Amino acid sequence: MNAFGYHSPARVADAAALRQRHADSTYIAGGQSLLGAMKLGLAAPSDLIDLGNLPGLNAITVQGDLLRIGAMASHAAVAASADIQRLIPALAHLAEGIGDPAVRTRGTLGGSLANNDPAACYPAAVLGLGATVHTDQRDIEGDGFFVGLYETALQPGELITGVSFKVPQRAAYVKFKQPASRFALVGVFVSNGPGGARVAVTGAGACAFRVKAMESALGRAWSADALASVKVPADGLNSDLHASAAYRAHLIGVLARRAVTQAA
Fold first, then answer.
1. CA 73 to CA 58: how far, in whole Å?
2. By Cβ atoms counted within 10 A, which residue in 9, 195, 235, 250 is the most buried?
3. Domain extents for the chain?
C-alpha cells in the first residue's frame, strides 16, 4: 500500500475543498472496497478524505411519500431502520443480505453507489424504485446514474449526500448470491408504484439495468405468469468462472418471477 495523506473534514464544503486541492485524492466512506483495492495496488490515492465526521449524512428521514437515506448510513442501519422496514421492507431485506456483519457495519449506501460494483445490490434498488441520488452539487435521477463498469454520472470531486426512494405499493428483491463474497451473481429488484412497474437487475451486466419488456408485461398483469414468455437475451451479459452469460440470462427470469410472487 502506498503512503497517503489523511483528512477528516467537519463539513461537506470542507470535504469538497480538500478534494479540489488534492487532485489525486479520493473520498473514503466505509472503505470496504477502497482499502482492499489499495492493498492490492489497484488504487493509489495521494490523500484520503474521510467522510465519517460529516454531520447529518447518516440520517434516515421520511419526507412525504419519499424515504431519504443519508449517504453515510451503513447497511446495518438501513436493515434495522423501523421506517424502512415499514415503508420499503424490500430495501431493508436487501441491506440485510449484503456481505457479512462486519461489512454491513462499515459499508455505506453512498460508498456502494459511488463504487458501482457490477454485482452490488443497492444499484438494483435505486433503479427498481426510481430513486434520486443527491450530491453536494445537484440531484441525479437513478436511471441516469449508472453509466458502465465502475462508472457513474458523478463528476470528479462530486460527493453523494443522500438518496431519496419513492415508496412503492409493493416491492421485493431476490438475489442468487456467490457463496463466498455474497455479491449477487444475479439480483432482481421489482416494484409497483405511482410510476408503474419497474424491474432492475444487478450482477448480470457491466452495471445495473432495467428490463423494459418485463416492466411492460407486469404493467398489464402483476403476476409471475406474466413474465413466463419474456426472455432476456444473453448478449452483452457477464460470463466468468462463476456463471456464463446464458446462465445469468436464465437466472434473471427465474429471480424476477420469484420477486414478483414475493412482492404480491
1. 4
2. 9
3. 1-48, 170-263
1-48 has which fold? 3.30.43
Report which residue type is found at 221: A
What pTM did the predictor assign? 0.94
Locate all alpha helices (DSSP H) within the chain, ordered by sequence: 12-21, 34-39, 75-80, 82-87, 89-96, 101-106, 109-115, 122-128, 212-220, 245-263
The highest-level CATH class for domain 170-263 is alpha beta
Average pLDDT for 161-183: 94
Rounded CA separation 197/190 (Å): 7
Radius of gyration for the chain, computed over Cα atoms and rounded to the nearest angstrom: 18
DSSP letters spanning 103-172: HHHH-BHHHHHHHT-TT-SHHHHHHHTT-EEEESS-EEEGGGTEEETTEESPPTT--EEEEEEEPPSEEE
* pLDDT tens-digit map of 91-142: 999 999 999 999 999 999 999 999 999 999 999 999 999 999 999 999 999 9
The sign one gets for the Cα dihedral 16, 78, 183, 147 is: negative
* Residue scoring higher pLDDT (1 or 8): 8
